[in-house]
């Protein structure tokens, strides 16, 4: 029988059995992580350097890129390490840290997406009050609340999960540490019920944010449809599409992975869905914003041009 106090490591789910496929997964994860790092790095640089993006939406976009970088750096490096060295182990403390930071960044991202929805609502439905309702102080408070909510939610779940006695072995059916798979190893009925209670509280928070998002977009669409000119409606819709696309990608992948019927659950599908919601969104989010927002595209173009010009000037000066 295993005990959480004496357990030193967990066994993660292998991405593949054959060595060739393991190396293929390594290179695939490496490409995705480099793309995510580059794209989110460009977003951060563009928002920081271009004064046109010194707006509430630019500020929230900067915070969103930070959560994307954090979430992909939490899960992918360990998966790459295991694929490259043909191992599946993760230490007990490493698993706890991975679970904490993954929950932290995912929770903060959802709260930030809810806040960004409020930004779009005020910009379209209450444009005359935009500067008042979304001043620099208000934006800082909302971002701080999103990060604090993610931290508290992650701390409670991680502390409770890793306080449970584990007696069902140490093999997790997931390529990174996640609460449902750790709970399967628990032999504490009361601890399991306590975690279910925490999950219900978190679900109420998630559902409350979802209702707020739906209500906000109903009001946004009603306001946009009242705009007399087609060009005005198109411009208003275009400001909402990047946020709506990122939000839909985030929510749909999480729901698809965790709420699918047990009858269609099998290892390869579960693994594909977990990769879909934990790895793909951080790489696609900056691409969505850069493709749909002309201001972001212009800022990224100026940032890249400045970097290339600086590199050329350095080479010329060295010569």
TrEMBL record:
GO cellular component: plasma membrane
Domain G-protein coupled receptors family 1 profile: 39-289
PROSITE patterns: G_PROTEIN_RECEP_F1_1, G_PROTEIN_RECEP_F1_2
Bilayer topology term: Multi-pass membrane protein
GO function term, MF aspect, one: G protein-coupled receptor activity
Its job: Odorant receptor.
Family named by the database record: Belongs to the G-protein coupled receptor 1 family.
Name listed for the protein in its UniProt record: Olfactory receptor
Source species: Pipra filicauda
Gene: LOC113999625
């Amino acid at each position: 029988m295993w005990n959480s106090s004496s357990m030193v490591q967990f066994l993660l789910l292998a991405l593949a059995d054959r060595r060739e496929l393991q190396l293929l997964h390594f290179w695939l994860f490496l490409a995705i992580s480099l793309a995510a790092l580059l794209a989110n790095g460009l977003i951060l640089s563009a928002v920081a350097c271009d004064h046109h993006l010194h707006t509430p939406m630019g500020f929230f976009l900067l915070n969103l890129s930070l959560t994307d970088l954090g979430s992909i750096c939490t899960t992918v490096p360990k998966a790459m390490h295991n694929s490259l060295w043909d191992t599946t182990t993760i230490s007990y403390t490493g698993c706890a840290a991975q679970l904490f930071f993954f929950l932290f960044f995912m929770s903060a991202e959802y709260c930030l997406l809810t806040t960004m929805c409020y930004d779009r609502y005020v910009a379209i439905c209450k444009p005359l009050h935009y500067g008042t309702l979304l001043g620099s102080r208000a934006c800082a408070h909302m971002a701080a609340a999103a990060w604090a909510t993610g931290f508290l939610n992650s701390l409670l779940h991680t502390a409770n999960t890793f306080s449970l006695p584990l007696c069902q072995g140490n093999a997790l059916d997931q390529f990174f540490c996640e609460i449902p798979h750790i709970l399967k190893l628990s032999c504490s009925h009361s601890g399991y019920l306590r975690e279910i209670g925490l999950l219900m509280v978190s679900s109420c928070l998630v559902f409350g944010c979802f209702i707020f998002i739906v209500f906000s977009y109903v009001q946004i669409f009603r306001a946009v449809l009242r705009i007399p000119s087609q060009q005005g409606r198109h411009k208003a819709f275009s400001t909402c599409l990047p946020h709506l696309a990122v939000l839909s990608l985030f929510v749909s992948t999480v729901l698809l992975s965790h709420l699918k019927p047990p009858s269609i659950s099998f290892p390869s599908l579960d693994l594909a869905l977990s990769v879909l919601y934990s790895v793909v969104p951080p790489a696609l989010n900056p691409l969505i914003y850069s493709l749909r927002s002309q201001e972001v595209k212009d800022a990224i173009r100026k940032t890249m041009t400045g970097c290339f010009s600086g590199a050329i000037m350095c080479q010329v000066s060295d010569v």
